[in-house]
Design goal:
Layout (H helix, E strand, L loop, with lengths): L1 H13 L1 H33 L6 E6 L10 E2 H8 L14 E12 L6 E9 L3 H4 L4 E5 L8 E5 H6 L8 E4 L2 E10 L8 E5 H7 L4 E2 L1 E5 L3 H13 L5 E5 H45 L1 H9 L4 H28 L5 E6 L4 E6 L4 H28 L2 H6 L2
Parallel strand pairs: 4-9, 6-8
Antiparallel strand pairs: 1-11, 1-12, 2-10, 3-4, 3-11, 5-8, 6-9, 7-8, 13-14
Helix pairs in contact: 1-10, 2-8, 2-10, 2-11, 8-11, 10-11
Length: about 400
């Protein structure tokens, strides 16, 4: 068996031009699949990592997003004094009532506007988001028309660099700092003082209350207490679960579209592999007859040709993964269907995606080589030697 596979590998090298062309077709298909899966994974991880596993988020009972939620000041005050919420050394609850508003801002280098999330935050908001770090400038002063912007906003939105001025709600807002959200959705946000932002938009209610609730039992207690409180009409979720739900629809759409495109393109790659293997069988009919005359069984011939097509698939799949991995250096922005704001995120390659892509490429190789291998194995010794 070792001899027969060595023979197959040498023949692939002898026909290296057609081998490279066939493997190249499979590499392109594999790269498309890997890119689609990496895109969906990047979107999911960006949103899921936005939430902290130790935080709970409280929204209006029927709301699906922060933008569509509304919590009165009185209700927010009730929520923030619950005993399950962690406390600071001074006894104050580690929580923040925040408001989220969509505004139109102009993109750099164009006259096109983009939906951008402006988050009104409290003093403890930064402590509740340990993944957010100020990288230049300073935090805004409470009660002022100052803002800090995420790193993606600073790159994409006009006048959002440090020292710039953003205009929304008929007000000029001075950019006094830039923060890095560690690749999370916060990178695509502008942060301002919650009370000043609400006054600018003439709003009297918050969007959500974020609170540090580290233990599982404490979270369940808080959830049960608030959702059963007749004074309130709220829902309580873990922050990571909330952001996971935000990513599900779009990530699923990307995966379905990417898989459909890959299956469509894979038909051409499979046919290319099939033509290559049929040509190999036709050119090596005499060699096949000689191998059979030397005592090699039909299953050995079948295994040899299937091995060749499998190698083509694996080689193409590996090349496709390597090409797809380069996309990790690319950051794109798209519309977040949950909030209708622009969200910047990157491609992410995981071992699971690499395995799925390689398995799909191997399947393409096997399907492309199955019929030619079967034909080679069914050749009669006399007929094969006569045609040589």
């Amino acid at each position: 068996m070792t001899l027969i596979f060595s023979y197959s590998l040498r023949n692939l090298w002898t026909r290296r031009f057609t081998t490279i062309l066939t493997a190249g077709g499979m590499a392109l298909v594999s790269a498309v699949l890997a890119a689609a899966l990496m895109l969906a994974e990047g979107l999911e991880r960006t949103l899921i990592d936005t939430g902290s596993p130790d935080n709970a988020i409280v929204l209006r009972g029927s709301a699906e997003t922060e933008v569509g939620s509304s919590i009165d000041r009185e209700d927010a005050a009730i929520i923030q004094v619950q005993p399950e919420i962690a406390r600071k050394p001074n006894g104050e609850p580690l929580s923040a009532a925040e408001t989220l508003i969509l505004v139109y801002l102009t993109k750099k280098g164009t006259d096109k506007a983009a939906h951008v999330q402006v988050r009104g935050v409290w003093p403890y908001s930064l402590e509740l988001r340990p993944q957010v770090k100020l990288i230049s400038g300073r935090l805004f002063r409470p009660g002022s028309h100052e803002v800090v912007v995420g790193s993606s906003i600073a790159r994409r939105i006009a006048d959002s660099e440090l020292g710039g001025t953003l205009h929304f709600a008929l007000t000029d807002w001075k950019v006094v700092g830039v923060f890095d959200g560690s690749g999370t959705g916060f990178d695509s946000e502008v942060w301002a003082d919650a009370e000043r932002l609400m006054a600018a938009f003439r709003r009297n209610s918050y969007s959500a209350v974020i609170a540090r609730v580290p233990s599982g039992s404490a979270f369940e207690g808080l959830k049960s207490r608030l959702e059963k409180d007749p004074r309130l009409s709220v829902q309580v979720k873990r922050e990571v679960e909330f952001y996971r739900e935000q990513s599900e629809v779009m990530a699923k759409f990307i995966r379905i579209l990417g898989t459909a495109m890959t299956i469509f393109f894979s038909v051409g790659a499979i046919l290319g592999a099939m033509v290559t293997m049929y040509t190999a069988v036709a050119n090596r009919t005499g060699e096949i007859g000689t191998l059979r005359a030397l005592g090699f069984k039909r299953r050995s011939i079948l295994a040899a040709f299937l091995g060749e097509s499998l190698f083509l698939g694996l080689f193409g799949g590996t090349a496709g993964i390597l090409c797809g991995s380069l996309l990790q250096f690319v950051t794109i922005s798209t519309l977040n269907w949950g909030t209708f704001s622009e969200l910047a995120f990157g491609f992410r390659l995981t071992p699971q995606i690499a395995f799925y892509t390689l398995a799909f490429a191997a399947a393409m190789g096997l399907l492309g080589g199955m019929l030619p291998a079967w034909r080679a194995a069914r050749l009669e010794i006399v007929d094969a030697l006569r045609s040589s």
